[in-house]
Amino acid sequence: MYRDEYISNIDIEVTGIETIAQSNALEKQIKDLLAEKHHFSKDDRGGVWINSSIAGHIETQLIFTTINAFLWIIGLGTLFIGIVGVSNIMIVTVKERTFEFGIRKSMGATPASLIKMVLLESTAITSLFGYIGLASGAIVMKIVSYVLEINSTNKENASGLASLETFSDPTVDMRSAIAATIVLIIAGIIAGYIPARRASKLKTIDAMRYNK
Questions:
Q1: Angle between helices 54-96 and 98-106 (to 10 degrees)
Q2: Which terminus of the chain faces fewer neighbouring Cβ atoms within 10 Å, N or C?
Q3: Cβ contact 199:98 at 8 Å
Q4: How many CB atoms lie within 10 A of CB 126?
Q5: What is the signed CA dihedral for 177, 179, 181, 184, rounded to 10 degrees?
Q6: Mind listing the pLDDT tens digit for each residue in 98-135?
Q7: What is the CB neighbour count within 10 angstroms for residue 42?
Q8: CA-to-CA dists, residue 167 to 62, 144, 149, 185, 202, angstroms
Q9: Exposed, middle or buried, 199 (CB in 10 Å: 0-12/13-18/19+)?
């Protein structure tokens, strides 16, 4: 006969368990404690049944770690493409302005002043467009978050069940975004410095004849 005071199962939430070995050790401690308390053999597998979710948790963590690594690869690839693009732009820009450098040198400009001018321009350009890209990414994430929130609310109202929140509230990691912007700025400075230094070393007459 069923009695209300009987307990059929107990859910236990434990922190600090990260491996299957730790989970098995905890299960053994629980079984030994219950066996001693309720007077059944510790080796009786039917005495108490314990279902651990640590294996599923580890698999889930592995999936998210793989996704995170994949996103890092995509991000680094995108950053590399940005660096190549900035470098190409600065190289072409300096080459097209070699004649201008010759004119400036004929008017008394020093090689150091020419290099400084290019570096300031490259820093300003990459900083401006890096900031625009950072702001655009933040705005897109806000829009995506708003759309997901509306979609989640509609599903909850329609079914009476809350939707999964795994991908809700997407945000931009500001440290990574700022670091990427700084890397682009440094790449722009280096990409501008190398051709500018080469062009500034040209003789005035050779610079004025460049690409002519």
A1: 50
A2: N
A3: yes
A4: 26
A5: -140
A6: 888 888 888 888 888 888 888 888 888 888 887 887 78
A7: 13
A8: 17, 10, 10, 31, 56
A9: buried
Q: Are 42 and 34 in contact (CB under 8 A)?
A: no
pTM assigned to the model: 0.57
**183's tokens:** 């890397």
Q: What average pLDDT score do residues 160-164 get? A: 46
The two structure tokens encoding residue 16: 């600090």
Neighbour-count burial of 141, counting CB atoms closer than 10 A to its CB (0-12 exposed, 13-18 middle, 19+ buried): middle
What's the burial of 196, exposed, middle or buried (CB within 10 Å: 0-12/13-18/19+)? buried
Q: Which two tokens stand for residue 140?
A: 């897109």
Written in H, E and C, the secondary structure of 47-68 is: CCCCCCCHHHHHHHHHHHHHHH
Highest mean pLDDT: which range of 2-11, 33-42, 81-90: 81-90
Residues in the chain: 212
Give 207: exposed, middle or buried? Use CB within 10 Å, 0-12, 13-18, 19+: buried
Cβ of 144: how many Cβ atoms within 10 Å?
A: 14
Q: Tell me the one-letter amino acid at 174.
A: M
Q: Tokens representing 211?
A: 């690409």
